[in-house]
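We were asked to recover a plausible sequence for a given structure. The inputs and outputs are reproduced exactly as logged, with field labels preserved.

PROBLEM: sequence recovery
POSITIONS: 108
GIVEN STRUCTURE:
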């Protein structure tokens, strides 16, 4: 939610996407309790995928000033401590949940 708010897309229909993912992932965690450390990254990917289908790429990369706009990726795809990463520049941008800490964004 913090990343959505930081990028000004935390509208009601988008928040519903988060709720849908959390509901699905809650079931997933019940089936595989050892995987709870992966939930943050999985929910971020679920929401990113749902936003792509409805609205387009999100979150857009704040690192690359030229070229085609592109979305950040979540890495690791299945692992603890997920980060938003620009795969084109090969840099880690921010931990998932911390996009609001980037210069020029809202947030704490």
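RECOVERED SEQUENCE:
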């Amino acid at each position: 939610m913090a990343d959505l708010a930081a990028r000004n897309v935390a509208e009601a229909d988008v928040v519903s996407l988060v709720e849908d993912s959390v509901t699905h992932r809650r079931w997933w965690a019940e089936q595989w309790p050892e995987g709870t450390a992966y939930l943050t990254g999985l929910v971020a990917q679920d929401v990113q995928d749902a936003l792509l289908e409805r609205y387009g790429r999100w979150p857009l990369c704040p690192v690359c000033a030229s070229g085609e706009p592109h979305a950040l990726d979540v890495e690791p795809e299945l692992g603890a401590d997920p980060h938003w990463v620009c795969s084109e520049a090969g840099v880690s941008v921010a931990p998932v949940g911390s996009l609001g800490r980037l210069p020029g964004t809202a947030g704490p």
